[in-house]
Amino acid sequence: MSYPYQGNPGYGAPPGGYGPPQPGYPQQGAPQPGFPQQGGYGQVSMPTVESASAAAYGTSSGGYPGQPGWWTSPSSWLWTTPPVASYGAPQPPQPAMPSSYGPPQPQYQPKPVPRQISNGVPKQISNGVAPKQTSKTDPSSKVNGETPPPPLPPRKKITEGTLKPAKNFNAENDANILRKAMKGFGTDEKAIIDVLAFRSSEQRQQIRTMFKTMFGKDLIKELKSELGGKFEDCVVALMMPWDEFDAYELKRAMKGVGTDEDAMIEILCSRTNKQIQEIIATYLRTKDIQEIIATYKRLYSKKLEDDIISDTSGHFKRLMVSMASGGRMENQTVDPTKAQQDAQRLLQAGEKKLGTDESTFNAIMASQSYEQLRAVFDAYHKMAGKDIESSIKSEMSGNLEIGMLAIVRVVKNRPAYFAQKLYHSMKGLGTDDRTLIRIVVTRAEVDMVQIKQEFQRLYGKSLDTFIREDTSGDYKKVLMALVAQGGY
């Protein structure tokens, strides 16, 4: 933009009128080139846009016109700075002067400038138009000179089971079908599969209650007397309430000679710990540590913690006792600052220490919410330059290592954790049928769709194919009915 004269440049009057005279301006009465002779400051009316423009730039008969749009866009006048031409440079041509001015414009009344909030910092919106969203690295998004940490993405994902509640469910009709399948000589295994493998856990418990009501017999005992082998194990697992089945599996894992630490780790490190005041009579769908503890005590007249203490040792024992306490802070709000501090504690307890402080790992891994642990693991990776899993593998061994890795993998991707467990239960010679049955039965209604997706992604082969190739007979049929969505 150029000024109308090489002398003193003229400026338009502000929208609200002139303020008091500023120091340094010419004294009254002193003629200035390009400006009309000033009179006294007697009774002076407030200048309008037209009068100010005429005073600054002269009339339309001579001199250069005012810049077009200078007063018609107050926001641009407020927020832009006219460029200054270099000294002695020729002025660019000015646009043609209109033949006459339009009617006087009403005095400009500025509208309230809207504001928006971004990361807790108000931002000005020019001309009522919100600015474009800035990227995480945009300097304009910085607060106090520092870029705030980006919000953690939501990790809670919708999961879906392959087994859905049966429509038009009739417990009485199903009880009659099962009675007929087991009555007389031989057993109709297909009828048993068609009922129990296509009903939800809650519906199966209603069938169990109705069967006893109608025939005076316990359905589980009847099934055990008619069936055998792995098919029996799978059907009985289906008929147990989930919390009761978890308690049964934990008791089996610690019963007799030897301990099935893998089963203990899987159950205690993958279940939630929501506080439950009592176990409902029919033991409907639940996955809570507190219910497992209560059910275990009711079934076996002994605390779960007591069996863990007597059957395990060392830091692994401490981890299992911690997990069995059901005290994880599940409703904890993600705290990035605390995540940084805990990541530093883990680093000092492992990679930067001669030896390993297992207690620090135990305290953080067993107490923080899954969302908070994700933030800790992210911070740890940035600090250490390696994943937390790599550090655990290099710092720990044995069952403690397996337990810690289970927590990390469940936190990161629960379906992928179970996909890995299923793969290893069928990989190579032989089959770990207890693990296969436990995961299929307990996850079929929860997240089996996602588990199958992760299985395909990790191993390039479907879970259905693995099960078909590794099992046989009615055992294969009932497993396929649970995972195949619609057939077996």
TrEMBL record:
UniProt key word Repeat: yes
A single GO molecular function term of this UniProt record: calcium-dependent phospholipid binding
Compositional bias (Low complexity): 25-36
The keyword DNA damage is assigned to this record: no
A Pfam family reported for this protein in Swiss-Prot or TrEMBL: Annexin
Alphabetized Gene3D superfamilies for the sequence: Annexin
Region (Disordered): 1-47, 56-75, 81-163
GO CC terms in record: cytoplasm; extracellular region; host cell; nucleus; plasma membrane; vesicle membrane
InterPro entries: Annexin, Annexin_repeat, Annexin_repeat_CS, Annexin_sf
Protein localization: Host cell; Secreted, Extracellular exosome; Tegument
Compositional bias per record (Polar residues), positions renumbered to this chain: 117-144
PROSITE patterns named among the record's database cross-references: ANNEXIN_1, ANNEXIN_2
Keywords: Annexin, Calcium, Calcium/phospholipid-binding, Repeat
Amino acid composition bias (Pro residues), ranges on this chain: 90-113
UniProt domain comment: A pair of annexin repeats may form one binding site for calcium and phospholipid.
Function according to Swiss-Prot or TrEMBL: Involved in reproduction of the worm. Involved in host-parasite interaction. Delivered into the host cell by means of parasite exosomes. Binds to acidic phospholipid membranes in a calcium-dependent manner in vitro. Causes aggregation of liposomes in the presence of calcium, but not in its absence. Likely to promote membrane fusion. May provide structural integrity within the tegument.
Sequence similarity: Belongs to the annexin family.
Record's protein name: Annexin
Naturally occurring in which organism (per UniProt): Mytilus galloprovincialis (Mediterranean mussel)
